[in-house]
Design a protein that fits this description.
By secondary structure, the chain is an alpha+beta fold. It is built from three helices and two strands; from the N terminus they run ββααα. The protein binds zinc ion (2 copies).
């Protein structure tokens, strides 16, 4: 039986917006110690640190360099929309242009 190889290598859609999802990546140094470093989805990585706190510092520094989101595009429901405070939210931005539909109508 010939092995069936299904290679689904669909190229990622070219997105104009680079997403930043920084995480603290754990690694092991040459000496066998645990190391920590910033590893962002945009490709930014920091050098390895022996303390997680230092990597978190790099993470904060990286986020601080990101452009600020205009007030009208800030997400008001970050958990539901899966947005970070440095990411503009198209969902909330669209709602902002409308009138407030959140008013409950009690008949
Ligand atoms: Zn980034
Ligand atoms: Zn939102």
């Amino acid at each position: 039986m010939a092995p069936t190889t299904t290679t689904a290598s669909a190229p990622a859609p070219a997105s104009a917006l680079v997403r930043h999802r920084p995480v603290i990546a754990r690694g092991v140094t040459d000496l066998g110690h645990t190391s920590y470093r910033l590893d962002c989805s945009c490709g930014t990585t920091s050098k390895e640190h022996s303390a997680r706190r230092l990597a978190e510092w790099d993470l904060g520094e990286h986020v601080a360099t990101l452009p600020k989101v205009p007030a009208g595009q800030q997400c008001r429901d970050a958990k539901r929309h899966d947005r970070r405070h440095w990411e503009p939210c198209t969902l909330c931005a669209g709602q902002a242009s409308l009138f407030d539909l959140g008013a409950e109508v009690t008949a």
